[in-house]
């Protein structure tokens, strides 16, 4: 049925239909990657514990925590992409609904040209030209909606990409700090490897990662919008008699504090510490649209 709906839509809507459908597949892939990453995090922790080596067990367990958090970021990214995809659907619906008006405009233009050639003094010309003006106005409204929603869609998309990248880089840097604590000095037969002495430092790495995630703020420039300068009918406010003052939309928002990062050995269900951090951005976007 989804394919049938795509076939029945106007050409521009068909292209958007394909994009929206492809994005749905991409979002599903990110959700799958999130689940796999969290599963792998648990597996690496279990393996480290099974080695019987205190240092490997401690480090692999905490690496599992960070890997799980990276997986949570994939899931948050997928959620943010779904918001972007929803805006694309609005553009598709606009394009679909305005297509009859575009066809009518083209038809009226052809009639005017034919009438000017055959009967240049015809009184019907005035009527047709008025109809053409109305059709053009409808098309301008649709164009304004499309431009506004396109900016909104890729504002959401690009912000989501940057947030995911910056947070995953942050987690990866802390993971490298953990790896650095593991002593890989060869031990000759007969010698005993020294006991692991960096448990407190390893725990501090997780605390630092938690704090960095909590304090993360968008580092990108906001995307300004002039859409607020339009009246309720999407005509310029100066024309529509709208006295409201234009304000640029702002990308980014306040992040809520994540839950404390916990070891898979302490608690298998890793807390979704950053899943709520995208809410501040989404809520601010909804207030601006």
Describe the protein.
The chain is mainly α. It has 7 helices and no strands. The protein is rod-shaped, with a radius of gyration of 28 Å. The chain starts with a helix and ends with a helix. The model is unreliable at 1-7, 238-259 and 266-289 (pLDDT under 50).
Task: Please name the defining characteristics of this protein.
single chain, 289 residues, mainly alpha, disordered N terminus
Break the fold down into its secondary structure elements and pairings.
Elements (H helix, E strand, L loop, with lengths): L1 H7 L2 H40 L3 H65 L5 H57 L18 H17 L21 H4 L38 H10 L1
Helix pairs in contact: 2-3, 3-4, 3-5, 4-5
Extract low-pLDDT stretches.
1-7, 238-259, 266-289
How would you state the average pLDDT, rounded? Answer: 79
**Biggest sheet, open or closed, and with what strands and sense?**
none
Distance between the termini: 31 Å
Number of helices: 7
Number of β-strand runs? 0
Helix content: 55-70%
Into which percentage range does the β-strand content fall?
under 5%
- Taking all Cα atoms into account, the compactness measure Rg is 28 Å
Order of helices and strands: HHHHHHH
Question: Which structural class do the helices and strands define?
Answer: mainly alpha
The global form is rod-shaped
């Amino acid at each position: 049925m989804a394919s049938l709906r795509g076939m029945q839509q106007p050409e521009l809507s068909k292209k958007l239909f394909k994009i929206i459908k492809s994005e749905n597949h991409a979002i599903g892939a990110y959700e799958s990657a999130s689940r796999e990453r969290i599963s792998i995090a648990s597996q690496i922790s279990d393996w480290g514990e099974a080695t019987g080596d205190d240092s490997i067990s401690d480090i692999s367990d905490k690496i599992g925590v960070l890997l799980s958090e990276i997986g949570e970021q994939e899931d948050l990214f997928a959620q943010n992409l779904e918001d972007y995809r929803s805006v694309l659907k609005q553009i598709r619906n606009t394009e679909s609904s305005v297509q009859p008006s575009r066809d009518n405009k083209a038809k009226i233009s052809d009639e005017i040209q034919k009438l000017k050639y055959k009967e240049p003094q015809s009184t019907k010309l005035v009527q047709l030209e008025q109809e053409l003006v109305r059709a053009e106005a409808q098309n301008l409204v649709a164009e304004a909606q499309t431009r506004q929603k396109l900016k909104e869609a890729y504002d959401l998309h690009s912000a989501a990409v940057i947030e995911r990248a910056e947070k995953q880089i942050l987690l990866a840097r802390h993971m490298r700090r953990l790896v650095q604590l593991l002593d890989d000095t060869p031990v000759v037969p007969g010698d005993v490897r020294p006991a692991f002495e960096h448990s407190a430092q390893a725990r501090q790495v997780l605390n630092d990662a938690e704090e960095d995630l909590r304090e993360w703020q968008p580092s990108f420039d906001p995307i300004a919008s002039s859409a607020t300068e339009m009246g309720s009918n999407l005509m310029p406010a100066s024309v529509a008699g709208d006295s409201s003052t234009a304000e640029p939309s702002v990308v980014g928002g306040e992040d809520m504090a994540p839950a404390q990062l916990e070891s898979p050995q302490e608690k298998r269900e890793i807390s979704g510490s950053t899943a709520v951090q995208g809410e501040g951005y989404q809520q601010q976007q909804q207030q601006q649209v």
